[in-house]
Design goal:
Blueprint lengths: L4 E2 L4 E6 L5 E7 L6 E3 H12 L16 E5 L1 E3 L4 E4 L4 E6 L21 H8 L15 H18 L4 E9 L2 E2 L11 H4 L9 H16 L6 E8 L13 H10 L4 E6 L10 H4 L3 E3 L5 E3 L7 E2 L2 E2 L4 E7 L9 E4 L5 E4 L13 H24 L1
Antiparallel strand pairs: 1-2, 2-3, 3-8, 4-7, 5-8, 6-7, 9-10, 9-11, 11-17, 12-17, 13-14, 15-16, 18-19
Length: about 375
């Protein structure tokens, strides 16, 4: 059993550490004959996640340039075509500062996985957290870009978009939830925020948080439009269960919702029921989408809505109480380059995980019912 692999028919395995020479991903189960251009179809998504693009993210300078090592034949005009064999993408680490972590070699950072890795394995990579670092998510974004090629092949109308909808206690307007945003607006600010006024307020909030030596949590929403009904399976193959697993596997995520999520506890049966009328071409027309596009673990054909909460960055300048490997009590302040809100760069990661789950389920659906 591999604990670095996710998926069933469309499977990906990530490798590498935050301060190693490189990180990468091997994708197995990718159909042959999918043509892509590296910059347009892969690098563009990595660029969205890349660190150091604004004052609101870590200043680690990583170009995150992906290299394709296997699983393709190279064509004209920088295009590649998948062969159906394992597809291998590699990203070099070029801006590590391992010396920043020297003082942490024997000390556990509160809120990090330092203690749990040490307790389980008896050894840990203190340089940026090793495998527990969010650096690994670049591999997921690269794999998600390939998953989008699969989705484009079998569900050409599908669109996957993510946005930051809450930072700390400040939320975007309720009417802009569940994908009711403009893609242009998302690209016009540093937060992938669909509301310009909220983005301005967040900038001020984050400046104050950073100057105080602290960090802040956030909520990311990911919406997939244009998927067919029928994806997923009952009981143990549920689409929403796989989505929840995928989002919860992202670093620092502590909660996942599908559709209205926890808010359904406040609704009555009359309010919660997504009523149905006859739509065009005999297809059903749902009058609401409290279920987030999934019922009984199977997609309804509506927008698939997933939301996840990201905890505040644990690496902060304010001293925190902790212990070292010998059990001695001490205080620690984490230096180095860290995101004051990891939720910002989690947006393209959430999009990637949505794409990876949907690509897998499209292939599984196709294999089961044709």
């Amino acid at each position: 059993m591999s604990f670095n692999t996710f998926g069933h028919l469309f499977r990906f395995t990530t490798w590498g550490e935050s301060h190693g020479p490189a990180i990468g991903v091997v994708i197995d189960g990718c159909p042959p004959g999918l043509t892509f251009e590296l910059q347009r179809d892969v690098q563009s998504y990595l660029d969205k996640r890349r660190p150091g693009q604004s004052r609101h993210t870590t200043q680690r300078r990583e170009p995150d340039q992906a290299r394709v090592l296997s699983g393709v034949v190279e064509g004209e005009n920088s295009t590649f075509t998948t062969t159906g064999t394992p597809l291998h993408l590699m990203i070099e680490n070029v801006d590590q500062r391992s010396k920043d972590y020297g003082a942490l070699a024997q000390t556990f950072r509160p809120g990090h996985a330092d203690y749990t890795y040490w307790a389980k394995y008896g050894v840990r990579d203190h340089r940026g957290g090793g495998r527990s670092s969010a650096r690994e998510t670049a591999c997921r974004v690269a794999a998600g870009a390939i998953a989008r090629l699969v989705i484009r092949q079998f569900a050409p109308t599908a669109v996957i978009r993510g946005a930051l909808v809450q930072m700390g206690g400040r939320k975007i307007p309720q009417e802009q939830r569940c994908g009711n945003w403009s893609a242009v607006t998302l690209d016009d600010n540093d937060f992938f925020c669909p509301d310009a006024a909220t983005a301005v307020a967040w900038a001020g909030d984050l400046d104050a948080i950073r100057k105080a030596g602290s960090s802040i949590g956030a909520v990311v929403e990911v919406v997939a439009e244009g998927l067919p009904a029928g994806l997923g399976a009952p009981l143990y193959g549920k689409l929403d269960a796989d989505l929840a697993s995928a989002m919860m596997s992202i670093n620092a995520v502590k909660g996942v919702e599908i559709g209205d999520g926890m808010a359904v506890a406040e609704l009555t049966g009359v309010e919660n029921a997504d009523e149905i009328r006859a739509g065009n071409e005999g297809k059903p027309m749902f009058l609401s989408n409290h279920a987030g596009g999934v019922l009984g673990g199977i997609s309804t054909g509506q927008d698939i809505v997933c939301r996840f909460a990201v905890k505040p960055t644990s690496s902060i300048l304010t001293p925190r109480r902790t212990i070292d490997e010998a059990g001695r009590e001490t205080d620690i302040a984490t230096k180095g380059r860290h995101d004051p809100c990891v939720g910002i760069r989690a947006v393209p990661v959430g999009e990637a995980m949505m794409a990876l789950v949907l690509a897998d389920h499209l292939l599984r659906h196709r294999g089961q019912v044709g």
